[in-house]
Structure formats: C-alpha cells, structure tokens
Amino acid sequence: MDDRLKETLSAMMDDEADELSVRRLLSREGQDEVCAQFQRWHQVRDLIQRRNPAVDSIDVSEGVRDILEGHDQGLDRGDVAGQPARKRWHWPAVAMVALALAVGFGAGTGWESGSLSSDQLAAAGDVPELPIKGMDEQQREQLSRYLLQHAQHNSFGSSHASMGYARAVSASGAEY
Amino acid sequence: MRWMRFAKLSLLSVSAILVAPVALAVETKQDEPHYWLERLEPALTETAYKGVFVYARGDQVSSMQIAHRFHNGMVEERLVMQDGQIGEIVRKGMDVVCVLPKHGRMELNDAIPSGPFAGALANQLVPVDRWYRPEITGRDRIAGHGVVRLTLNARDSLRYSHQLWLEESTGLPVKGNVLSAAGDILEYFHFTSLTISDSLPDQEFMIQSEGREVSRTLEPQSSSKPDGSMEGWTLGWRPGGFQPAATPRSGSGKAVAFSDGLASFSVFVESVAGTGMPSGTSRIGATTVYMRQLAKGQADFLVTVVGEIPLKTALKVAESVEIEDFEVLGANQP
C-alpha cells in the first residue's frame, strides 16, 4: 500500500478524508490489506486512548461505499466515521415467535387489560384499554396484521428470517 | 497539514509495532462487553446448532425446536413448533418453505408483504452504547453450556433493558430477558437443550411433516432501501437512537419501522373508513400496542404503534403523528 493511500486511511480515521480519495481507496485492489491496516490502526489508537477495542473484524467499507453512492440512510456522518457497521441481532425476533405459533395474536387471551402498573398509568395518563375480546372479526384481523408485520420487521434481514415466517404461520393457524 | 498527517502516520506505524502483542491480549479479553457484542451477529449466523427453546411473555409459555447452520455460503434453518398445531418452516438462503397448521385462516401471501424489506435492520449503524450500558455481570451454565451474562441497561426510561446469556465458545445467545424499569421480566427465551456441532445431518434441514406447503423467495437485501419515508404523514417525535429501518407495505396504508439496535417499533397509519377500530392500548410481555384515531379535515385515520417499548414511548410516538397528504393515505379529500 503506498503512502498516499495510507494518508487517506489515516485521514478517514480522523473524519478528514475527502470523498475523492476515499473512492480511490475503496476501488483499489486488495481490500483485505486495506481493511487489515485500518483495523490495526484502530486497535492502536484505541489502546493509546484507552478505549475499548471496537473494530476487531468489522468491515466498514460497504457502508462507506453505500453512502458515497448516495444511499445515505439518514445517518449522520459522525456515526459512519466513528462506528463500525454492526449487525445487530434482534432478540424479539426469536422471542415473539413461539407464543404466536401456539396461541396466535388474535386470540387475545394473553393480552393484559386493566393490569397496568401505577407507574405506567401515571405516565400514560388516562389511556383506555383496547377491548380485544370485544372486537369483531375484521378488527381483530386488522390488529393481527399489524402485529405480524411488526414481527417481520424484526426478523427479516436478520439471519433469522424464518422467525418472521413462523409468526405468519401463527396468524394463519390462530383460532379466533 | 500534510506534514502533520505524515508525522501522525509514522507515529501510528511505530506504535503498531510496539503494542501489537498488547492489542492481541486485549482482543481476547472476555470481560469486555464489546467483545461479546461484536460476536453476536456472526455467532447467530455462522454457528451450527440445534436445540429446543422456550419462549414466554405475559403468562404464556411455548417451545420450539430449531436447527441452524451456515452451509455453502447461506443460512439454513428449520423450525418446528412443539406446542399446539404442527407446523414447520425451512429456510435455505432466501428460499422459505412453510408447512402450515391445518385450519389456516390467513393466507401467507396476505401476511407477508411483497417487495424489498427490512434488510436495514442488519445494517444498523446505531451505536448501542449510547442508549444502553453494556456490562458483563457474571457467568453461569445454561442447557449444559458455560455462558457469560451480558446486561444491557437502558440509559433512559424510553426503552427496556435487556439481558443476554452467551455461550462461551461461540457467543451464541442461549437465554434472553427483556426487563422493565422496575426490573420485572417482561419476556424471555431460554434454550433447554442445545447441541453445537458442525456435523449436523442434512436431514435436519428438510421438511418432515405433511401439510399444506407454501414456498416463497425473499427479496435480496441489496434491493432494500428503507429510507424511512413516511408517505403522507410525518412523525414529530421519536425516542433517541431509533432509526428508520423499513418501509413495508401494509395494504393501502403506510408503515415505517424504527430500531435502536436492540428494540424496535412499527408505526402504521391508515384511513379507517368503515373498520371502526377502537382507540386504546394493550400489552403482552414486552410488546405494546397503542391505537389512536386521528381526524384531519373530514377524514379519519387510525394511527397504530406496535413495539417492544414502554407504553409512554408508544404513546408519545403516536401523539406526534401528523397527516400531511390525504390522497396518499387513501382517504377522500374533504
């Protein structure tokens, strides 16, 4: 790797790199080497500054490339420069499935009514309970659809996409 | 400026040589919460395992069998329901096959909106530290495996706290709790048996029960460009750290999902001519639903917030929804 690229890499760490040089860096062959260098320097910097080493094996090049291509997803620059593109796991995706499978959202049996804690009531003011049991079929299906789609937001795109499908099945199998 | 950069570069390079052994030592330090946080997603994707887990929220408990592996560059998974009606789901990469329980009411195709989806969740750039306080809070043994307990305490009252028990050698979560501000467990999952093995037989990943099969291919994630665009409406407030994650299609209505890296909520805004949905709130485990009628001109809309968030957060989000464009939302112009 030549000095100019190293200079760009160093500038990237300080969020001072210009777009053109970042593009040049990312289009270079041997991205592994670039990533390795970037990670080493981060480790060094973290050690010097006594931070927690945060970029063990994360490749930010994809995220940076996306942003240069204009796919900025509303994230501020600070996040991109300072934080690696992390994949987060959404445990509710796993968690919400099984119950849904067995009971279904529409059943309404497990949904609490009238048992909010005093804290919650204080925070929420005077919020009426949703009378799920008193809903007609159309209304319950509407509610089920919302719950289902929310479950899918949790799981699609993660490595646990099946979980979303599991919830879909649950709605399908729910006996109202 | 330029010479300064070179000076810094040299310093970095020299330091790299000097501290390289120390860097290695820190990297393997298992008492660091970040060490485990970074491993979470790769552990979930790449670990080959099978087992049974229990999931509970509110007063309901159910169990599921799962097999998972990363094979030929793609995720393979099979889930089998252990309670109630028989059903199973097999996924190979982006192909999914479901065997549905007998008395299906809702078509799967209705349930699963088509089009690009929430790939964004996997690409979150949300720094978890800013909204949660990660901490290693002990070691334990679960489903026969040594585990590390990672606690993620919410830094504000707008979200719940989480606890994860991670298997020591792989980082795979084998137990998880969602906790209220008062420390009550709202919902949890818990593996009761778990085998981590790279030699799971192919049989484990094939449909084995009989029933109505539905196949579907997921859209590749690259086509997903969730921009959080709220067509026809805007959100005046959202809790800190929650970024737009998806723009799913919900019939004629518009929905947007938000996530802070651990928790998520979805907002649905639809014209409600005819359905007469009531307003109010309902909860099960950590999931809160809040529905609110919103009149704009002569048109009525239903705002629904669903998520693993406290009621006051859901309430505040729902109250901040403003309707901008009637036609986009399918309502007649007054």
Helix content of chain B: 10-25%
Number of DSSP helical runs of chain A:
9
Question: If you average the pLDDT of chain B, what whole number results?
Answer: 76
Class from secondary-structure proportions of chain A: mainly alpha
**Gap between N and C termini of chain A, in Å?**
65 Å
Low-confidence runs of chain B (pLDDT<50, min 5 residues)? 103-125, 220-228, 247-253
Distance between the termini of chain B: 62 Å
- Tell me the total number of β-strands of chain A: 0
Order of helices and strands of chain A: HHHHHHHHH
Overall number of domains of chain A: 2
Write the layout of secondary structure elements.
The complex is a heterodimer of chains A (176) and B (334).
Chain A: H1 3-13, H2 19-27, H3 31-48, H4 61-68, H5 77-82, H6 91-103, H7 118-124, H8 137-155, H9 161-173
Helix pairs in contact in A: 1-2, 6-8, 6-9, 8-9
Chain B: H1 2-27, H2 33-46, E1 49-57, E2 60-71, E3 74-81, E4 88-92, E5 95-100, H3 108-111, E6 132-142, E7 145-154, E8 161-167, E9 173-179, E10 185-196, E11 212-217, E12 233-235, E13 243-246, E14 249-250, E15 253-259, E16 264-271, E17 280-284, E18 287-296, E19 299-307, H4 311-319, E20 321-323
Antiparallel strand pairs in B: 1-2, 1-10, 2-3, 3-4, 4-5, 5-11, 6-7, 7-8, 8-9, 9-10, 12-20, 13-15, 14-15, 15-16, 16-19, 17-18, 18-19
